[in-house]
Each structure stands twice: as C-alpha cells, then as structure tokens.
Design goal:
It is built from 7 helices and 17 strands. By secondary structure, the chain is an alpha/beta fold. It folds into 2 domains: about 170 residues, 3-Layer(aba) Sandwich (Rossmann fold), CATH 3.40.50; about 90 residues, Methionyl-tRNA Fmet Formyltransferase, Chain A, domain 2 (Roll). β13 and β14 form a beta hairpin. The chain is elongated, with a radius of gyration of 23 Å.
C-alpha cells in the first residue's frame, strides 16, 4: 500500500453486487469524478457524465481506490501504487475471509459488524478506518445485511472523504485476535442433525433468501426446507432419523430434540412437496 499520496480529485471504485451498488451510491454523493471498474449492470446505470468506466486499475492515474464486493486478487504492483480502501462484513480482525457474516452468526456472536479498512497484501489485514456494530437480536442474515447496506450507503463516502483529508487516523488490527474463514458451498447447507439445536437454529437464520435454504438430502436429491419448528426435548434415539409423520409434517430426530418440517422444495427443479410425500417413518437422513 502506498504510504504517501496526493489526492487528484478522482478516485477509483471497484465492485459489484448489492454491496457494490450501495457503496457506489455513497461515493457519488461525495465525489464528482469516479473511475469505475465493474461488470455490474446496475452500477453501470448509476454512472454520471463525469464518471468513467475502466477495465483495469492501470487505466486510471487516481491514487485512491475503494473496493466493495470486489473479489478478484489485486496484484502487488497495484497495492504499491495506490491506496486501497476495502469494505468487509465483520468486526475485523475476527472473521477475515469470505462469508464472514454467516460464520460470525454460526459462532453465536452477540455483536456483529462491518469494517471499512485499508488493504494490504494479506487477507483483510489492513488498518481500520471505521467500524459499524450491531447487537445480534435473532435477526436473519438478510436483515443484518440490510443494516450493513444502509450503513455503507449513508457513511462510506464520508469516511473516504475524511480519510483523504486526514481527519481519520487508521488503527492497526490486533493480529492476536484474528480468525480466518472460507467460502461456504452448497454442501455446507445440508443439515447436520448431530449439531446442537442452538447451532441448527442459527443455521436457519443464516440460510435465508437469496441464499440456498437449509437442505436435507434424500436418495441423493437435495430439498430445501421451506418451514420448520424445533422441539427441544432430550432423549436417546438415532440422530437424523424420521421418527414421526403427522398429517403433512415429518419429525426428524436431532442431537438435542426434534426438527419438524412440512414443506420442502427440490433444489434443482424448485418443485414443492409436503414432507410426508418424500419422507417415511424410520428413514435415515
């Protein structure tokens, strides 16, 4: 990361997705000239007359870069040439890496948050400019991301402006408190009935639209669980086994109780079934 810079009134924005959209909206409220590196059609629609679409960082002589929803590796020469500001959905130094919010929720964090930080050659390791904190009160991941998006749209541009004008002093991260997490895939959405009910309840809060919902696997077919209920009752029985079919619902034994499901959806075809159409008493999942 370049240590000294002279702001030339133009900055680069790189990003895409919902996080990129709200970040760009925030930046255009504070800066008149932005060079934009994106493939996101919605972001391209927001470009103003003075903004310029670029295909690489080298196309711009701007020394300040803001990344939001930008997942490509930035080459070392760019890190050395420019000051790069990144956005990250965790309270760094904890949960560096991908799908940070999901991992924080699955670790039962009482406080969740978002970080605006400088980028260096390590994963989410750079100095912190500002953090936004939210008390976790049983919200879904989608509800938390909405709070993060609102914070970014209302604050990112101002944070970048203050940093450029040396009104914000970057704070180094405490590496001794750092944790790292990796991208979750579809197999991570399959319900592990050996987990505690507390963990499974957290999983259902994490896996909500637009992400895949919690999944059961039946004869190599994946079904998303559309509705559910937990019964906290501790007794000895085979975990992951269908113990009861009642009306249209299936009761599945978990390590600490029972998961009741009624409507399920084929992950690929999106066809919806009643649980009793697919599951039978005694079946092992």
């Amino acid at each position: 990361m370049k240590s000294n810079f002279i702001f030339n009134n133009t900055l680069i924005f790189a990003g895409e997705g919902h996080g990129g959209i709200v970040a760009f909206k925030s930046l255009i409220s504070c800066f008149d000239f932005i060079h934009v590196l994106t493939n996101d059609l919605e972001i391209k629609k927001l470009l103003r007359v003075n903004d310029k679409l670029i295909s690489s960082f080298n196309e711009s002589d701007a020394e300040i870069v803001v990344c939001a929803g930008y997942h490509k590796i930035i080459e070392e020469d760019i890190l050395n040439q420019k000051v790069i500001i990144n956005t990250h959905p965790s309270l760094l130094p904890k949960y560096r890496g991908l799908h940070s919010l999901a991992w924080a929720m699955l670790n039962f964090e009482e406080e969740l948050g978002f970080t605006i930080h400088l980028m260096n050659d390590k994963i989410d390791d750079g100095d912190i400019l500002e953090q936004f904190k939210v008390k976790y009160e049983n919200q879904t991941s989608s509800e938390i991301m909405d709070l993060f998006d609102s914070y970014i749209e209302n604050n990112l541009g101002n944070v970048v402006y203050k940093f450029i004008n040396k009104e914000i002093i970057p704070v180094k991260q405490n590496r001794f408190h750092a944790t790292w997490v990796c991208k979750r895939n579809l197999s991570d959405c399959i319900i592990d009935f050996n987990k505690s009910n507390r963990y499974l309840k957290a999983l259902f809060k994490v896996l909500v639209f637009p992400y895949p919902l919690p999944i059961i696997k039946v004869k190599n077919i994946l079904y998303e669980v559309l509705d559910h209920e937990f019964i906290d009752v501790d007794y000895e029985m085979h975990v992951g086994r269908v113990v009861n079919i009642e009306i249209e619902s299936a009761y599945i034994k978990t390590a600490e109780g029972i998961l009741v499901i009624k409507n399920i959806r084929d992950y690929n075809s999106k066809e919806i079934f009643k649980a009793n159409e697919i599951l039978k008493i005694g079946q092992r999942l």
